[in-house]
Amino acid sequence: MKDDLNTDFLTVDGAARLAGVTHWTVRLWLQKSKLTRYKSGQHTVVSRTELLELLKPRKAKD
């Protein structure tokens, strides 16, 4: 599956490239429900918007 980083959904590998992490990290986020898993044919895809939201810096809790 070809990735276009301007699409609404990304493959696990495409999401990993965009996030600057390994595909194993994206799979861990899926396993821990930090990202929602969608299917496109036989491929697992994730929402680009949801991924970018996950990557936003957050204020540390005291």
Can you describe what's shown?
A hairpin with a 2-residue loop joins β2 and β3. α1 (12-19) crosses α2 (23-31). The protein is 40% helix and 18% strand. The protein is an alpha+beta fold and 62 residues long. It is built from 3 helices and 3 strands, in the order βααββα. The protein has a 3-stranded antiparallel β-sheet with strand order 1-3-2. The protein has helices at 12-19, 23-31, 48-55, and strands at residues 9-11, 38-40, 43-47. The longest helix has 9 residues, at 23-31. The protein has one domain (9-55). The N and C termini lie far apart (43 Å). The relative contact order is 0.22.
Overall mean pLDDT stands at: 90
Estimate nothing, just give the exact number of structural domains.
1
What is the string of helix and strand elements?
EHHEEH
In DSSP terms (H or I, runs of 4 or more residues), the helix count works out at: 3
Question: Helicity, in percent?
Answer: 40-55%
Structural Rg: 12 Å
Structural class by SSE content: alpha+beta
Q: Percent of residues in beta strands? A: 15-25%
